[in-house]
Amino acid sequence: MRAAALNWLTSQGVALPLAAFLLIGAIVFLSGARLTRHADAIADASALGRLWIGTLLLAASTSLPELTTDVSAAALRAPNLGIGDLMGSSLANMLILALLDLIYFRRRVLDDISRNHLLVGVLAIILTALAGLDMATRSHGAFGPIGIGSALIVIIYLLGMRAVRAELPEATPPVQLPLGATRRNVLRKAIVGFAAVTAVLGLATPALVLSAEALARTSGLGETFVGTLLVGLTTSIPEGVTIIAAVRLGALDLAAGNAFGSNAFNMCILLAMDLASPTGPVLPQAAPANLIGAQLAVLVTAMILLRILTPRSRTIGRWRPESLLVLIAYATAIWLLAPS
Question: Can you give the pLDDT at residue 156?
């Protein structure tokens, strides 16, 4: 069905996939803003805190586009499209934080982020580096259909998230509820709203990615380029919208938790791709160009972590050099991955 829909879109020229992309993009944009509000309400009403809700719940929800897209790519024998999307999404998430840091330079939005995000950021770097190592060594070890590298990534993710949870405070200070409301009712309403918006995103974002692929197919670009840059950027739209909405709400830890948490969670999708792939574990099948995406994803994540660690370091004009370097790294990815 997916292949038939893609063929139909590409047979109609550029106008139809472009119109579909813009229309569905608007739906995703509005849904992402609502998702952030519900997540913020859950963080307050449950007393779990914005960092944990952003890192786990919001990150997993906004990673649905990557999950559906990349599993489908593996099933259709296009693993490079899926792997490229995962690395491109990690690049795009850090690009969003860098752009916010540059645009809101007066507010210095990354200065007030909790240092606990460093743990999640380091975890994302470790998992991405492991994926790159498995691609570079062409490891063929497997447990049935699951590659050793993919299994190790999921195990380290679970252990890492447990360590992150252990470092967080047991509870956050309670917030003042609206007059006549109970914490239980507010939490129930927020959870129902979050689930409903997540369902909308789960339906809308695969169609968004499909329209992006239709736009790219007629260009003659390679799978890795399309996956890393076009599809990777497209599947990061929910993260981008929720991060921007969180910053506007003043929920900076929710924004950073979503970005770093998504980068870590995305690497776990490789195991689902292994299960869906008819040709075995996907990482050993990766094209060498995907290593560029993995290395740059590690680099930009490290740059953002350095930015958070050194809030009082020097600026270049009005901007922080770390955020500028993230933009340069993304431009480098476009240049290196563009077909000659």
Answer: 96
